[in-house]
Amino acid sequence: TANAMWGGRFAAGPDAIMEAINASIGFDKRLAKQDIEGSRAHAAMLAATGILSDSDVAAIREGLLTVLSEIEGGGFQFSTALEDIHMNVEARLKQVIGEPAGRLHTARSRNDQVATDFRLWVRDQADAAIQGLEALMRALLRQAEQGADWVMPGFTHLQTAQPVTWGHHMMAYVEMLARDRSRFADARARMNESPLGAAALAGTSFPIDRHMTAAALGFDRPMANSLDAVSDRDFALEFLAAASICAMHLSRFAEELVIWSSAQFRFVRLSDRFSTGSSIMPQKKNPDAAELIRAKIGRILGANVALLTVMKGLPLTYSKDMQEDKEQVFDAADTLMLALAAMEGMVRDMTANREALEQAAGSGFSTATDLADWLVRVLGLPFREAHHVTGTLVAMAEQAGVDLPELSLAQMQSVHPGITQDIFAVLGVHNSVASRTSYGGTAPAQVRAQIARWKEMLP
Ligand code: ARG
């Protein structure tokens, strides 16, 4: 039998395979709340503008609430034959309130309807991402505060570079996550315009009030072009792009936690609550949450690429291709929220090993740059010469199997006679970090200033 919604020109119903490829109800049922919210706003506007009678609209708005509670209560029977959430809701509304249900779709199309629903959904997710990021930033701030002056090795090429502070390293992620947060906020601000009332693509001849529905749904304004309104998904792509970048940050931090929690590093101890054991090796405590966070970017970036690929080359306006937008965004959003929550839990629970950090901070000739700087500052050597002298001393220490501070003054003077006992003060890791007082540098005073700034800025 032909479709109840649009079957007028059809003699036969769809093939089962057609139904299978066409239906989106299996996933777009997640838009139920937004769909009903949008429909209720649309109906209220139809009454306010005199397009529908107050009594019809009262029945529609009331009936929609009944349908929503059925869906939320889990008792709703979704039908694949009804394709998607929009038609499932409308069909049920018809059963609940009868004839007025057929008037709800006046001056509207599923094209502007789905664009509206999806914007509302993605907007909620942008808010959730911002909240998740803020929680993680607060956890990082607590770590940073506790170890603002704990020394650890800073790395380039994953080789020891210069000593830094634990607080400084934690705060580096606060900065990155803050940019992620502002990307979601930017995307949210740009997406916050209402497509509702664009109808199928051209607008409508009914005297609708798009400003009214936009305001009712919390949008800043109606979208200015009906063709654009039903045919772009850039708002979802922006969300996915922000999510991809955020997931990349989480992945890098996760990788550091994997390395740091190893027996070779022992920089951090992850809590039991965020670790797993091995079924064969009794000693094992594995950083599975960190590893999974490291990997999750695959799905999120995958969604970004998938949707961009769906959208490229599509002629205006709506094409059914665009129904492929939802699953990608649903999965990416779920994945991101879970990764943020897991990272927040891990960071909140983890214990930094101050002794191991400090021990590692001094290894690998980490204060060689301090030595070179001293030669410049005190002896007036050109930096290039100081670099060479220091390199010779590092080679000497390496040969002897000791660290720089363990070389004797005589050994040092054999390389440069101007070196004095004072040099040993700058070879210590605490002096090293304390000296890096340039703005944004690793000196504890700088780090504390940044912590204070962020504590004030974070809600
Ligand atoms: N389920 C559809 C989607 O998600 C709703 C819009 C259908 N519009 C249409 N003209 N067939 O894109």
TrEMBL record:
The keyword Cytoplasm applies. Residues 8-302 form the Fumarate lyase N-terminal domain. SUPFAM superfamilies: L-aspartase-like (SSF48557). The keyword Amino-acid biosynthesis applies. It is found in: Cytoplasm. Its main location: cytoplasm. It comes from the Bacteria. Pathway: Amino-acid biosynthesis; L-arginine biosynthesis; L-arginine from L-ornithine and carbamoyl phosphate: step 3/3. PANTHER family: ARGININOSUCCINATE LYASE. Belongs to the lyase 1 family. Argininosuccinate lyase subfamily. This is Argininosuccinate lyase. It comes from Roseicyclus persicicus. The lineage of its organism: Bacteria, Pseudomonadati, Pseudomonadota, Alphaproteobacteria, Rhodobacterales. The gene is argH.
